[in-house]
Amino acid sequence: MTHSTVSLYPLLEQALLCRHVEEKLLLAERLFQDWRAGSLARLAADPPYALPEAGRPERPELVHPAKVPRRGLSTRQGHGALLHAIAHIEFNAVNLALDAAWRFRDMPDGFVDDWLRVAAEEAGHFRLLQGRLRELGFAYGDFPAHDGLWAMTRKTDHDVMIRMALVPRVLEARGLDVTPGIQRRLATIGDTASVAVLDIILRDEIGHVQIGNRWFCELCRQRGLEPQATFRRLLDEYAMQLHPGDYNLPAREAAGFFADELAALARLGEQPADA
Questions:
Q1: Of these four, 18, 31, 122, 275, which has the most CB atoms within 10 Å of its CB?
Q2: Residue 151 contacts by C-beta under 8 Å, 6 or more apart in sequence?
Q3: pLDDT tens-digit map of 80-128
Q4: pTM to 2 decimals?
Q5: Where does the pLDDT of residue 275 fall: very low under 50, low under 70, confident under 90, or very high at 90 and above?
Q6: CA distances from 97 to 34, 150, 215 (A)
Q7: Residue 96 to residues 73, 163, 261, 269, Cα–Cα distance (Å)
Q8: Residues 6 or more apart from 93 whose CB is under 8 A from it?
Q9: SS3 at position 7
Q10: Are 210 and 121 in contact (CB under 8 A)?
């Protein structure tokens, strides 16, 4: 049996820095295939560095989250803007997963395997949404977007435990919460094709959040920390408190959240949104 001599890390960095959408998607998918085939090895490579921005195309224009236009679904523009916002999240999620596998090199092979799989699945999600945008006459880049997901990646690039706490357990878990409402809105205008795409994405995202939950708890165990108290402390430190609103408790339970967390979220969900 021959052992691979192709190093994983330069290929990961190439995918992470790639600015061309289709090429990035292909690179992410191929990395996972080659890793699973055993043709990539974790050989010594240049160490990871602070990455102000992952590779992305010139468009969409990035604006402050408050300046991303909110449009109703009664117009084709509004319909396209909603799907574009979700596609942008999925594109960022490809970069987030690639960065986790590239940056945190003290983690075991299982961590690399998990995040390469997530990157490939996020690439698939983006393709599905890209197809729906195309059917509406739009393309990725046609609407402005924000950089909130990558901004949190920068803030957590020094500690894998903090990354697992705040990206999968907060930002990506929020996607589990909002997806059913988005699906209901799309169903009211008869867009059953996009509802079906979001069914696939929701199913996979439960798995992605579960991966983050599992590694967060494992890292807490290794450091002698209690996970729930540690998570609450990190929410305070990074000013990411949870607010009243709808929480998808069945999806969060499937993704591995603790029973007391779910109970606390249920109480939050019962409060008025302006509380």
A1: 122
A2: none
A3: 999 999 999 999 999 999 999 999 999 999 999 999 999 999 999 999 9
A4: 0.94
A5: very low
A6: 16, 11, 13
A7: 29, 10, 25, 28
A8: 118, 122, 125, 149, 172, 208
A9: strand
A10: no
